Amino acid sequence: MDITDEEYDKKIDEYVKEYQYESKDKLLEQHSKAELLTQMRTEKAVDYLYENSTVNKMTVQPKETEE
Hints:
single chain
């Protein structure tokens, strides 16, 4: 999964707002493009897995211990 230029620009705008940076330049001063792309790819992969998941939710109960 790769990030298009359009997705990159959109996510940068979201990060500026979400993390309250003064501007895109301030964000890019503190984080490299490679670092931001890694974060974006991770988010995209997690979103894909969440949307396409077929795993059922299951509750695990602790095993009772014998004394």
